[in-house]
Every structure is written in structure tokens, then in C-alpha cells.
Amino acid sequence: MRVLVVEDEQLLADAVATGLRREAMAVDVVYDGAAALERIGVNDYDVVVLDRDLPLVHGDDVCRRIVELGMPTRVLMLTASGDVSDRVEGLEIGADDYLPKPFAFSELIARVRALGRRTSVPLPPVLERAGIKLDPNRREVFRDGKEVQLAPKEFAVLEVLMRSEGAVVSAEQLLEKAWDENTDPFTNVVRVTVMTLRRKLGEPPVIVTVPGSGYRI
């Protein structure tokens, strides 16, 4: 899952991004509304965590722009105000969910994951394929009933492949979904991660390389 965090309080923004990355999400961070508009014009995001009171361009206008573009991106709006009228207004603008500050980080994670599931064809909470069971909420992976310990990026790559339901996923798509924009697009990080993931999942191999196209399970 790829997430954009838009928050002008830099310490909070960076803390949220760090926490989401620990949950195997690819996260980009910006600190004002103008930068947010620039990012959504370039990258495809599953979820935008959007502070409402932003400098340069207000969060409401960023949300309206996402709606106008007809993007599948879901918006979780943050605000320091917990008034019902503010929550209603935010939802009417086009936000998909609303979370007042201060918030419990566990709730933020749950809401981001719930919104992420709504950006594509609905899938069951626990993904199963080729003897592999992946639970995104618990961050657990089992193969033939035996738990497999994965690093965050390995988990993210496996989740993208599982969600594709047998379709081929290119290296570029994996890079876009599992890594943030600071990753060198010419790096071999995808190939290395897939190799490590294959080894950890054991025999027989379940991740198939499709020459010239990508990978599938």
C-alpha cells in the first residue's frame, strides 16, 4: 500500500510516516498543501492522510482536487477540532474518513488499512493463495500452517503479489507500491527482495518470474 502523509507539523508527520513504514507501507511525506497537489499529480496513492489546516493550499482544497480528478485515492482527514460540524463538513467535501487530534496510532493504522482495502476490488481480510495465508492486520504470514517471519518490505511485496490474484506484477509496479519516492528506480532492490522472499517461503517456489514482465503467485 502506498500512502501520502500531508501534515505541517513536521515532527508529527515524520512520526506518522515512520509508524506506517513499520507496518510495511510505502510512505511519502510533505508539509504543505501545494506540495501535496504536486505529489498526487505525479504518484498514485492508495490513501492520503491529510491534515485539514495546511499552509499554502488548505487541506479542504487538496481534498476537493482529489475528488475532481476522479482518483481512486481515499482520504483520511486529520484536524485538531473534534466538533461534529467540522467532521460533517470534511466528509461533505469528499473525505472518506475523519480522525481528530490527538489520536491513538493504532486507530490511525486501522483506519488507513480499512481505506486501503476500499481502493481496489474487495478482498477478504486474510489473503490465501498457493498454500500461503497473509493477514495484513496482524502482519502474519503462514505457509502450509507454518509461520514465516518477514521483514517489512518482504511483507509488502508479498501482499502486493497476493492481492493481484495470480496476475503478473511488474518490477516497476512493486517498486511503486512497496517503496517510497526516494528509492532509486534503477536499483535492483526489487529483485533482491523477491529472491529473499522466495528463500523464506521455502520449497517448492511459489513466486514465478515471468521473463520481461514481472512476477506472480
Automatic annotation (TrEMBL):
Annotated OmpR/PhoB-type domain residues: 124-217
Transmembrane segments: none
Annotated GO biological process: regulation of DNA-templated transcription
Pfam families to which the protein is assigned, alphabetical: Response_reg, Trans_reg_C
Highest taxon listed in the record's lineage: Bacteria
Single GO cellular component term: cytosol
Response regulatory domain ranges (all copies): 2-116
4-aspartylphosphate modification, residue list: 51
Function text: Member of the two-component regulatory system CutS/CutR, involved in the regulation of copper metabolism. CutR suppresses a defective melC1 gene, encoding a putative copper-transfer gene, probably by altering copper metabolism.
Protein name: Transcriptional regulatory protein CutR
